[in-house]
Amino acid sequence: VAGGVVADGCALISSGDRFVPAHGELVGEVEIDRLVDPVRVRDQGGVALKLLVLHRPDQPAHTRISMVEEFVAQGSRVAFVDIDATTAADTLERCAALEPRHLPSFHEVDLVDIPATQRVIGRVLEELGSITVLVNNAASDDRHTWEEMTPQYWDDRLNTNLRHYFFCIQAVAPQMIEAGNGSIVNIGSSSYMMQEDFFPGYAIAKSGVEGITRTMARTFGPSGVRVNTVLPGWVATERQLTKWWTPEGEAATLRDQAIKRRILPREFAQMVLFLAADDGAACTAQQFLVDGGRF
Which helix (H) or strand (E) element contains residue 30? Predict the structure, then answer.
């Protein structure tokens, strides 16, 4: 299970799929970069920073970029968790190339191992002093059928896609409550809302993310801590394009969407950045769909 932490408090990010920037890519006559408004994320010391919309003309339009890099690029102090040290090293290298204000730190752990995960979060708190934003974004959408489900695989799907959300919150929330401020962003999935039936264990687990969000938002609200869910539609990540994409599937998606084009990872990340920032200070206990009007 991949995971991660962004802090500066800026965010604890569980980073699964990698993000694909739209640098200079044209949709009709409009550059994607121009579709994204900057948002502000509170930096240590209370300085409001603008999010940088990256433009890397030396790379192909679909070069991968992670949620970690989006936060790093606009000046956040970032720590992230991932089970894949090779991918993390690549992320660190790309972040360093941005010459950011703060370089991120990486901690290797499998989020299915709750005690190990909570120990890592403790180290991040010591390292950064605080975590003001937690982004839970680890998941696995491997295809399977209800007929082949076993009790062991059922437990694996819930442990991989849901359980660690709660226990990461449990580890981070006390210092947010003490500070009287914090934002928790849980990444869900619209698959259960659309009644997609090719990964029941994943879809059912992801439906539970909304239960965590609404329950904990009510619990933490009096302390100034917000909890929200962001639901991606079909976002053109590298994983989706290489593992699951078909021409027929994309055509069906575009028929359903009000916006007749691919939804790009950066556009999804911008919603997370909005909720992490002071701009989203009045939003809690909500789910935000980034699906091009498909649902």
Answer: strand 30-31
pTM metric for this prediction: 0.77
Structure tokens at 289: 């769909």
Q: 30 pLDDT exceeds 80?
A: no
Strand-pairing partners, residue 45, are none
Pairwise CA distance, residues 4 & 136, whole Å: 8
- What is the rounded CA–CA span in Å between residue 252 and residue 122? 45
* Residue 177 exposed, middle or buried by CB count within 10 Å (0-12, 13-18, 19+): middle
Q: Are 184 and 132 in contact (CB under 8 A)?
A: no
Q: List the one residue out of 116, 126, 208, 225 whose CA is nearest residue 165.
A: 208
Tens-digit pLDDT profile for residues 44-86: 333 322 222 222 223 222 223 568 888 888 888 888 888 888 8
Label residue 139 by pLDDT band (50, 70, 90). Answer: confident
Q: Are 284 and 226 in contact (CB under 8 A)?
A: yes
- Separation CA 89–CA 161 (nearest Å): 24
- Contact (Cβ atoms closer than 8 angstroms) between residue 74 and residue 67: no
Mean predicted confidence (pLDDT) in 153-165? 95
Helices 164-179, 114-128: axis angle to 10 degrees equals: 30
The residue among 187, 135, 126 whose CA lies nearest residue 13 is: 135
Helix residue ranges, H only, the chain: 67-73, 85-97, 114-128, 151-158, 164-179, 200-220, 238-239, 247-256, 265-276
Question: Is 70 exceeded by the pLDDT of residue 125?
Answer: yes
Half-sphere exposure of 42 (CA within 13 A, CB side): 18
Catalytic residues: 202
CA dist., res. 154 & res. 159, Å (int): 9
Among residues 57, 64, 47, the alpha carbon closest in space to that of 102 is found at 47
